[in-house]
Amino acid sequence: MTPLRKQLERLDAYQAAAVAGHLPALIAIDEGSVEASTSALPSFLGALARPLSFPVAVDRDGRIADGYEVHDLPWLVLVSTSGRVLWYHDISVAGWPTTAALTQRVRAALAHERR
Fold it and tell me: What's the rounded Cα separation, in Å, for the pair 31 and 57?
């Protein structure tokens, strides 16, 4: 597994960069069906040094993951306003991107979409 606490802090840094750079905001989705209990996520988030600056939703039965054909966890996806996948990153295969790399990939995917 990945060091999730540290990576959530990185995603918090992306969220700050997104707001400053007019990029899409982040929404995290926890696949609830893989958690040990319904209290696992609230307990984990409550133990963080500070609250996250982005919302965390729960996909209780995995339908959202299934809809994006997710096979591994965790994963990152950028979706257009019409629901089209613009960029996909499988963290279990490619690792966590740095905040700068994530910002660059989001910008590139948005630029490609506008063409």
Answer: 9
Rounded Cα distance between 18 and 26, Å, is 8
Over residues 9-43, the pLDDT tens digits come to 889 999 999 999 999 999 999 888 888 888 989 99
Angle, alpha carbons 41-32-99 (nearest 5°): 65
pTM here? 0.81
- The Cα 90–Cα 75 span in angstroms is 5
CATH code of 64's domain: 3.40.30.10
Q: Which regions of the chain does DSSP assign to beta strands (E)?
A: 28-31, 56-59, 75-79, 85-90
Task: Find the domain containing 23 and state its range.
Answer: 4-114
Question: Which token pair is 78?
Answer: 């950028």
Query: Residues with Cβ < 8 Å from 13, sequence gap 6 or more?
Result: 99
